[in-house]
Write a structure and sequence with these properties.
The protein is of the alpha+beta class. The protein is built from 5 helices and 3 strands; from the N terminus they run H-H-E-H-E-E-H-H. Strand 2 and strand 3 form a beta hairpin. The protein has a 3-stranded antiparallel beta sheet with strand order 1-3-2. Helix 1 crosses helix 2 and helix 1 packs across helix 4. 48% of the residues lie in helices and 20% in strands.
């Protein structure tokens, strides 16, 4: 188990360590011990997770064009993004004050609340 990848998942998705470990195991099973996995070999639910990991810069997607039976076909391959994983794993979460949530409430909500009290 790659602890750096687990930490990157934990930080990137604000998840518990147990959930991050379970997700990391699922991702590693999809790779079947290889460095790359072909997109078409993935179940649609795993592919969906891969796209989310790609958005967080934890996975890379490589495109390859090959000729099969005289037709050009595009194949896509997923791989781990070591730099992105390292960056996310070492990122320090921004600590916000316990009162910061109140700044996110729209002014109209405060006015409506004060009119009703």
């Amino acid at each position: 188990m790659n602890t750096l990848f687990v930490k990157a998942l934990k930080n990137g998705f604000d998840m518990s360590k147990e959930d991050a470990v379970a997700l990391a195991q699922t991702i590693q099973k999809a790779f079947r011990g290889g460095k790359e996995v072909e997109d078409m070999s993935l179940h649609k639910d795993i592919r969906s997770i891969f796209y989310e990991l790609h958005q967080k810069n934890l996975l890379c997607l490589r495109r390859e064009e090959v000729k099969e039976k005289g037709k050009a076909i595009r194949k896509f391959y997923w791989s781990f993004n070591s730099d992105g994983i390292r960056a996310e794993a070492t990122r320090r979460p921004i600590e916000e004050s316990q009162y910061e949530i109140y700044k996110k409430i729209p002014e109209e909500a405060w006015l409506l609340h004060s009119a009703n009290t």
